Write a sequence for this structure.
């Protein structure tokens, strides 16, 4: 089942008299399967927040369409089933933590009888129960973030959009939030995560989309994006004789090599040569890169492509 | 309807958290205490030396005195009350439209029109309660002192609240377009304190200008802009026991309010945040 379905979504921001136009999104299409954690990555100004804002109704698309939970995004009533934590959110400063959750629970249409229990349960979940009666203007950035997460979950949503949820939170708090996200996924909920912390995205996301200058440049599983199909790590039983292979090969350790190939045919011919010389292959693995390295490399490639055009 | 109520409640809470409303309430309490002390320390017999002359005459004199007191209350209250009210609500819309706040509100199952109506009713309700507290208190003190329980003073709660609602419509519109509370305040004060009184004197202006085209424009402007000046006269008239003879200022001001709210909703509904 698909929770978010985006088709050729574009957004052009225009200045007041149309003198300046900025293409924030350009024909973006993607689907988010239910019960998964979906990461949205991209450098600043890539269009990530614009995409989320379009899905949640604070920005209107210039063209294209989107559906969430099988309803067109124009139907604002569907937002009763959605949770959202925007980046740098501001709650009414005159409300207490409890008051904020009550307000958003009421707006989301949560049954009055369930609100009190839900508020305590969520404040406990994010470690804010003892701050329940304190006005939010006294909260630190990290506390606001924790309250924001509780607010996003107040209606027991099926789909949750989180924009930089761990911003300003210490490492222990970040781990707690990661655990919450994984629990949500285990409960069958869909999480749409926008984060700059790539190591975190790598740890929790099932699929990732990369945006750059409003374009969707890559989409796939974390495995897809961090596994190189051109560089392999080869562990042999013994050292190779120099000049045996006519390929880009680097000695990286005791009978261990890194091979760079253009395609799988080239890889197979290398294996054939090694085997023909009676050398046993202990392991052959595609080289794994961190998501951060992949991200930088993909963005750089995208920039080069744009410059060529 | 439920969503409008939630936003109304939120706006009332926001207003109550403001120091200006606390000041407003503090001033109201001070005025009530002041009047109570004055009424307690003055003797009606001394105030009305002619009281013993005839019963009928006494009643008229008491009424005249009560009328003068009402006039003394309502005339400054209209100006100062509205001035403070406009000042205290001008930031409601710009605050709501701040980045990080509006996205949160719009991510809920509420229509944008419901948000505007909620903000509008919330602001009007707070001003109504503030005025009601002060005016009802003064009315009760006058009633206790002079045994005159005629309700005309209470009508000014409605007329001043109505005038505020008309100006608040403009504040909402300017707030949505410019996201600036200062600009919203300036424009509202301009209409309230300058444009409306000037346009109210359009007959005198016509004599001075002596140009049909310009006079026609002034006439059109007169019907477009809210008539706070005439609403002030209506407030004083009704508060002192008179009746409204011309409803045109009320009707056109009401239409102005509906129009500003309608345009506000249209613009707010189309805007990206």
């Amino acid at each position: 089942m698909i929770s978010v379905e985006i088709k050729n979504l574009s957004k052009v921001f225009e200045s007041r008299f149309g003198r300046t136009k900025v293409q924030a999104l350009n024909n973006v299409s993607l689907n988010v399967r239910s019960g998964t954690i979906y990461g949205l990555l991209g450098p600043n100004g890539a269009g990530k927040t614009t995409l989320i804002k379009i899905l949640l109704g604070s920005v209107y698309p210039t063209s294209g369409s989107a559906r969430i939970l099988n309803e067109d995004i124009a139907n604002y009533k569907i937002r009763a089933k959605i949770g959202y934590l925007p980046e740098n959110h501001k709650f009414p400063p005159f409300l207490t933590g409890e008051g904020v959750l009550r307000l958003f629970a009421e707006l989301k249409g949560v049954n009055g009888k369930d609100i009190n229990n839900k508020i305590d349960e969520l404040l406990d979940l994010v470690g804010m129960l003892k701050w329940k009666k304190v006005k939010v203007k006294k909260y630190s950035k990290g506390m606001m973030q924790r309250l924001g997460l509780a607010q996003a979950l107040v209606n027991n949503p099926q789909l949750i959009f989180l924009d930089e949820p761990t911003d300003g939170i210490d490492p222990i708090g970040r781990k707690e939030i990661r655990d919450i996200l994984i629990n949500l996924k285990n409960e069958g909920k869909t999480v749409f995560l926008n984060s700059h912390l790539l190591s975190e995205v790598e740890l929790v996301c099932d699929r990732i989309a990369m945006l750059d200058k409003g374009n969707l440049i890559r989409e796939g599983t974390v495995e897809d994006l961090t596994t190189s199909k051109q560089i392999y790590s080869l562990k042999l039983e013994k050292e190779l004789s120099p000049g045996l292979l006519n390929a880009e090969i680097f000695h990286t350790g005791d009978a261990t090599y890194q091979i760079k190939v253009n395609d799988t045919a080239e890889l197979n011919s290398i294996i054939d040569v090694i085997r023909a010389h009676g050398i046993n292959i202990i392991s052959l693995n595609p080289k794994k890169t961190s998501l951060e390295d992949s991200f930088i490399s993909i963005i750089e490639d995208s920039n080069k492509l744009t410059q060529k055009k | 309807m439920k969503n409008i109520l939630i936003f109304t409640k939120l706006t009332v809470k926001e207003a109550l958290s403001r120091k200006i409303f606390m000041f407003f309430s503090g001033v109201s309490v001070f005025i009530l205490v002041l009047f109570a002390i004055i009424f307690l320390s003055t003797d009606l017999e001394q105030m009305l030396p002619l009281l013993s002359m005839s019963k009928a005459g006494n009643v008229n004199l008491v009424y005249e005195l009560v009328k003068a007191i009402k006039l003394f209350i309502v005339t400054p209250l209209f100006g100062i009350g509205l001035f403070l009210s406009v000042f205290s609500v001008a930031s409601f819309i710009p605050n709501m439209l701040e980045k990080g706040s509006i996205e949160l509100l719009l991510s809920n199952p509420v229509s944008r029109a419901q948000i505007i109506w909620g903000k509008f009713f919330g602001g009007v309700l707070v001003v109504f309660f503030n005025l009601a507290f002060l005016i009802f208190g003064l009315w009760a003190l006058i009633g206790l002192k002079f045994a005159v329980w005629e309700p005309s003073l209470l009508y000014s709660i409605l007329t001043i609240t109505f005038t505020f609602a008309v100006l608040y419509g403009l504040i909402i519109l300017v707030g949505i377009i410019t996201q600036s509370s200062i600009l919203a305040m300036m424009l509202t004060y301009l209409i309230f304190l300058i444009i409306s009184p000037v346009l109210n004197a359009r007959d005198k202006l016509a004599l001075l200008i002596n140009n049909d085209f310009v006079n026609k424009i002034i006439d059109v402007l007169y019907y477009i802009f809210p008539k706070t000046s005439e609403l002030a006269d209506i407030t004083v008239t009704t508060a002192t026991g008179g009746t409204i003879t011309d409803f045109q200022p009320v009707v056109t001001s009401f239409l102005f309010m509906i129009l500003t709210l309608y345009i506000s909703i249209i613009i707010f509904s189309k805007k990206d945040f």
Remarks:
- Chain A touches chain B at residues 13, 53, 56-60, 76-80, 82, 84, 86-95, 99, 103-104, 106-109, 151, 161 (CB under 8 Å).
